[in-house]
Design a protein that fits this description.
The protein contains 20 helices and 5 strands. By secondary structure, it is mainly alpha-helical. It has 2 domains: about 350 residues, no CATH class; about 90 residues.
Length: about 450
């Protein structure tokens, strides 16, 4: 199979069009409650930048993502589809960076093609790029930093790695890795650049709240509220949801021993970090596979290199038809596996792809939208706030309402009951004004 530059343009086009299809297939439905909460935080901040400044600098919402998505919402349309399209565009940018990295490494056309193909149609990557979650932007920043490191643009690369912490706190892993690289290469001055944005974020938090350790104290708890797993948990999960890419990546550790050392360090460090904190049940780890989206591009490059080495070892290059058949089988298998999961066949690892919302939640939100706008809404499920068209921390708040509060509505959802009080409490204390199929209950305070 002879891969020519036009095939890469075709690959980019297919990557773009398939994402557009699935984004509009799901519409305002999203796959996780977190997607709605990130959207609401960005919208809430941009509606009241000073009063809701806390939403911008929150450790959970992530300043970089909230800022970028908030600005996009301000200048376009306030709808979760807008952020999905933003993440789609971000991922196309990641694919282009992979192309540039491949050129730096002087990869063959076949290796370059499969690096972009795997990065595009990895299940975890594809799924993440059609949501409004933080992983795509974090991945873009890290991959851009890696590319600039290859180009020896050390200061800009350091700044990008530093700012990655403001998009996901796992950025600290890459800050440490870059620090090790600079120590080994005796670029000591650059070590000062790496903590710039984490320290700036903490300073802003201190000025706002008076907490000198703002990022640490308001971040994830030492003991995770999600429990813990075991050491093989993520390995099994990646083999289940990314069997081709992850298997070829493992092979690359042995077939490409002397190449891509820094890239392997990035992948293995990130993987080991999450394995350890999930096994120990610390730092808010929740056993979710989408955490590994940021290393999918690196794994894809290494997996592609393994594939081409395997083809070489099999000595079938003399038969172009056999090579083409092998490549075709890989492409069809990856596409089939990814799209079968995207269509709802995932069952665990928090990767079940049926949308988080259902008819009752949407109908509840629409009903709330018709109620008195002067009464504040409280809801535990962020999707309910979204579909009610309320603005977070303006006329709607997440969670259960405070004691002895009046003139409010409260939306109770059985599936998303995270507070201490259960349905019976509100049935006794509040006035029930609507019941959606014994699933979502709309209350009004007396």
């Amino acid at each position: 199979m002879r891969l020519v530059p036009q095939s890469l343009f075709l690959l980019f086009a297919v990557s773009l069009l398939t994402r557009i299809f699935f984004i509009f297939k799901y519409g305002e439905e999203d796959l996780e409650a977190d997607s709605y909460l990130h959207y609401l935080a960005s919208q809430g901040w941009i509606h009241s930048p000073l009063n809701n400044f806390g939403l911008l600098i929150s450790v959970w919402t992530k300043p970089l993502f909230t800022f970028v998505s908030g600005i996009v919402l301000k200048i376009t349309v306030e709808n979760i589809i807008t952020i999905k399209l933003l993440n789609m565009a971000v991922w196309i940018g990641i694919l282009y960076l992979i192309y540039l990295i491949g050129k730096e490494y002087k990869l063959s056309k076949e290796t370059l093609f499969f690096s972009i193909f795997f990065s595009s149609f990895s299940f975890l990557a594809f799924r993440s790029s059609i949501t409004s979650l933080t992983e795509p932007l974090f991945t873009l920043v890290v991959v851009a930093a890696y590319y600039l490191l290859l180009r020896k643009k050390f200061i800009v690369s350091s700044l990008l790695v530093s700012v990655s912490f403001l998009c996901r706190t796992e950025g600290i892993i890459f800050i440490i890795i870059w620090g090790i690289y600079f120590l080994i290469n005796k670029k000591y001055r650059l070590l000062v650049v790496l903590p710039t944005f984490p320290l700036l974020w903490n300073l802003v938090g201190f000025l706002r709240y008076g907490d000198m350790l703002y990022v640490i104290n308001t971040g994830y708890p030492l003991i995770s509220t999600y429990g813990k797993g075991d050491l093989p948990y993520y390995i099994i999960g990646l083999l289940k949801y990314e069997p081709i890419i992850f298997s070829l990546f493992i092979i690359s550790l042995f077939l490409c021993i002397n190449r891509f050392v820094f890239m392997k360090l990035c992948v293995l460090s990130f993987l080991l970090f999450h394995i350890v904190i999930w096994d120990l049940g610390i730092l808010g780890s929740a056993g979710i596979l989408r955490y590994f989206v940021p290393i999918i591009p690196f794994m894809s490059i290494l997996a592609s290199r393994s594939l081409l080495r395997i083809v070489g070892y099999l000595k079938i290059y003399k038969s172009k038809s056999l090579v083409s058949l092998l490549y075709l089988i890989i492409v069809i298998s990856q596409l089939t596996y990814t799209f079968s999961l995207i269509n709802g066949n995932g069952v665990d690892y928090v990767e079940s792809n049926s949308p988080h919302v259902d008819r009752e939640i949407m109908d509840s939100g629409i009903f709330i939208h018709s109620l008195d706008k002067n009464k504040t809404l409280y809801a535990e499920d962020p999707a309910l706030i979204y579909f009610s068209k309320r603005i977070l921390d303006v006329d709607a708040y997440g969670g259960q309402p405070p004691e002895n509060i009046s003139n409010i509505y409260f939306a109770f959802n059985k599936r998303y009951n995270t507070g201490d009080k259960k349905l019976s409490y509100y049935l006794n204390k509040y006035k029930l004004i609507k019941n959606f199929n014994n699933y979502t209950y709309i209350f009004e305070s007396p």
